From TrEMBL:
GO terms for molecular function: kinase activity. Residues 219-421 form the Histidine kinase domain. The lineage of its organism: Bacteria, Pseudomonadati, Pseudomonadota, Alphaproteobacteria, Hyphomicrobiales. It comes from Reyranella humidisoli. It catalyses: ATP + protein L-histidine = ADP + protein N-phospho-L-histidine. It is an enzyme of class 2 (transferase). The keyword Transcription regulation does not apply. It comes from the Bacteria. Residues 159-211 form the HAMP domain. Its EC number is 2.7.13.3. This is histidine kinase. The chain crosses the membrane at residues 6-27, 136-158.
Length: 421
């Protein structure tokens, strides 16, 4: 993932680099301008007046060049119009080619050279003895310092903006993972601060709506208990005169509805709690055997200790066994349920296997969704549709997971992995 503040910062650095490069290039182009300023013509006239005529003897021209070199402290050479050297004072100048010579300052390997064509056609080449720093370097250094100052000064600003966006992203992630109390600090008065304030308002509204929904669900579930109790009492008072089938059907409906309310309340309570309320060491094999004994189901395996909430793990085992008994009857009438507890690496593995028709592979994940029913499941049994959803929720709250697999020989195998204590 590319950091936003780094993108801003790199953009600033690239713009500064382009600016410095363009400034240096323009200076170089201006320095290499072919136009001859008027003052060079004046310098050529004055120099021609100081030097002997072109037809003067060469020793006389040599002495004049030496005198000029002592005054100016330049390496000086005088050439004929055809490039033949007439006189020289100081270090030998670079190779001179009159066909390529131009009046003005030029950069050379030994330093800047000053080339001047005299009125009589002769060429005077002077090279500075003490090299002075090229002005272009001073300008480039000044621009570089400006670029460094801008880079250093802009980094805290850009990094601060990036940190604020990162904190906002963290708050969004927390809210997305179910932490409805997630809020971000509002910093500054710009668009990012307005976005943070808008996020806080939205998160507050979502938290209020979810809290109201949970309260309504809990109250409704609680209020349903009273008429259910009255119906149950009325069913028991029907006496022997009532139809036994009707009485038993009514009792099953009441029991199923009571179980649904209990599971809804448990699901609502789990949603309201970010972590487990209790942590204690639990022998998973003993817990599974104790719970499965209520359904005449035997448990095999080895003792494995896990840390968690005993009540929730008991509910997990109960829901798996009830689900297996409700939907696990095979075509041959085999309704046996097998429960086992084993250890694999650092995990405790609880498996509940039935001999039912099995779950199609495409629906093995969806059956853990609340109130999801497979096609035709209503004909094979009755249930609330929350049992397996609670199994998955409880397993994940203990740091584990729950999956549905195909059993050998037909049927379904529900596997729950829990980290050992």
């Amino acid at each position: 993932m590319q950091r936003l503040y780094l993108q801003f910062y790199v953009t600033i650095l690239v713009v500064l680099a382009v600016f410095v490069g363009a400034a240096v290039l323009l200076w170089r182009l201006a320095d290499d301008d072919n136009r001859t300023p008027q003052y060079l013509d004046v310098a050529a006239e004055l120099t021609g007046a100081l030097l002997p005529d072109s037809n003067a003897p060469r020793p006389e021209q040599q002495r004049a060049i030496e005198a000029l070199q002592r005054k100016l402290r330049f390496d000086i050479a005088l050439y004929e119009p055809d490039g033949d050297m007439i006189a020289m004072a100081g270090k030998p100048p670079p190779r001179f080619e009159p066909s390529r010579a131009r009046t003005g300052w030029r950069r050379g390997p030994g330093g800047p050279n000053f080339v001047l064509q005299l009125p009589d056609g002769r060429w005077l080449v002077a090279r500075q003895v003490r090299e002075r720093p090229n002005p272009i370097y001073w300008i480039a250094a000044a621009l570089a310092l400006v670029a460094i100052a801008v880079a250093v000064g802009s980094f805290p600003v850009v990094r601060g903006l990036g940190r604020r966006l990162e904190r906002l992203k963290t708050g969004v992630d927390r809210l997305g993972h179910g932490d409805l109390g997630a809020r971000v600090k509002v910093e500054g008065r710009d668009e990012v601060a307005a976005l943070a304030a808008s996020f806080n308002r939205s998160a507050q509204r979502i938290e209020e709506l979810v809290a109201a929904h949970r309260l309504l669900l809990a109250n409704a579930s609680h209020e349903l208990r009273t008429p259910l109790t009255r119906i149950s009492v009325a069913a028991s008072l029907l006496g022997d005169a009532a139809d036994p089938r009707t009485r038993e059907s009514l009792k099953r409906d009441v029991a199923e509805l009571d179980q649904l309310i209990e599971q809804i309340l448990l699901a609502s309570r789990l949603e309201a709690l970010p972590t487990l309320e209790r942590h204690e060491p639990i022998d998973l094999l003993a817990l599974a055997a104790e719970e499965a004994s209520h359904y005449d189901v035997e448990v095999s395996g080895e003792p494995v200790t896990v840390n968690g909430d005993r009540t929730l793990l008991r509910r997990l085992v109960r829901n798996l066994v009830e689900n297996a008994q409700r939907y696990g009857t095979g075509k041959d009438g085999d309704d046996s349920v097998a429960v086992s507890v084993t250890r694999e690496s650092d995990c405790a593995v609880l498996e509940v296997t039935d001999r039912g028709p099995g779950v199609p592979e495409a629906e093995r994940q969806r059956i853990f969704e609340p109130f999801y029913r497979m096609a035709g499941s209503a004909e094979s049994g009755r249930g609330s549709g929350l049992g397996l959803a609670l199994v998955l929720d409880i397993a994940r709250r203990h740091g584990g997971d729950a999956v549905c697999l195909a059993a050998e020989g037909g049927g379904s195998r529900f596997r729950v992995d829990l980290p050992t204590g």
